[in-house]
Amino acid sequence: MKPLISVIVPVYRVEEFLPRCVDSLQSQTYENLEIILVDDGSPDNCPKICERYAAEDKRIRVIHQENRGLSGARNTGIDAAAGEYLAFVDSDDYVAEDFIESLYMLIEETGCPIAQCRFAYVQGEKLQVKENQAWKIYRGESLMSQLYGPEEESTCFVVAWNKLYRKDLFDGIRYPEGRVHEDEATTYRLFHAGKKLVFLDRALYGYYTGNTGSITAVFSRKRLDWMTAHEERIRFFTDHGYENLLPAAYRKLCDACITFYFRCTEDVENAKILQADLKKRLRKYQREGAEFICKLSWRTRIGYCLFRISPGVYRKILSRIQEPG
């Protein structure tokens, strides 16, 4: 018999989307599943919807808890899971019917403890799955370096929910509660524990973009949790032999200082204070990572210095450089 796979679904204020998500999990071609719906203190009809599904399908378990946020809901699911493998699906998203089976078969074929697929941005339409069976294995430093590729590719690697994991990878690893950008703070630790990952070049996960209540829609101080996660990642890389990735890691932090600075518009609470903090952070990263930042291009290094002197001048020069010729 194939092993039990636990699918963890954090649930909070998604009554409009939850049935679509659960329906896609019930339709999986891989049948030996337990679907764990973690009601994270949702104040709408989600608790009733969860219970209705559990009454209809013995594979579905419901856990009700006081609100602990996305990380807390995922951690509750991990602690409760009985499966040999774990997957996460956000409750406003949905998956192709062979999402679990395709990833499991690759784990079986390759011996990798993590399998990952592409995802597609969707707004409720049927997920169009191309019959592409191409896959690739990433190991060690090569795997970790995928976190610093082009934005779309790096996003595919860092997120929690387009993957199937061997459960024992989570021994000693949990998502940080009370913070956003929890994936940025956790996925690299799972990569290190697993050593290798197989990547299926098919979009089997539908990431719903129509929910305007997303935490990423508005910039606030909480978004600086992203920087905290990357500071932790740098310390982890230093301690675990990934020094070759430190130039890219410091560049990502420095670039984020500038990006976040310009997102602090007048509509953002305490924008001036945030901007001052970001300039200080850039100075700090340049000082602490000097031996690695010096390996970046001279244009990048001059850009950091110019930004610190005058963000306005930096922005004007960057706009001129980026103008189509």
SS summary, helix count? 13
Shape category: globular
* Helical amount: 40-55%
Strand coverage percent: 15-25%
- Terminus-to-terminus distance: 61 Å
Description:
The chain has 325 residues and is α/β, with parallel strands linked by helices. It has two domains: 5-208, Spore Coat Polysaccharide Biosynthesis Protein SpsA, Chain A; 218-322, no CATH class. Helix content is 45%, strand content 18%. The chain has 13 helices and nine strands. Strands 1, 2, 3, 4, 5, 6, 7, 8 and 9 form a nine-stranded mixed β-sheet that branches. Helix 2 (46-56) links the parallel strand 2 (33-40) and strand 3. Helix 8 packs antiparallel against helix 9, helix 9 (246-263) packs antiparallel against helix 10 (271-288) and helix 12 crosses helix 13 (311-322). The radius of gyration is 21 Å and the shape is globular.
Brief digest:
It is built from 13 helices and nine strands. By secondary structure, it is α/β, with parallel strands linked by helices. Helix 8 runs antiparallel to helix 9, helix 9 packs antiparallel against helix 10 and helix 12 crosses helix 13.
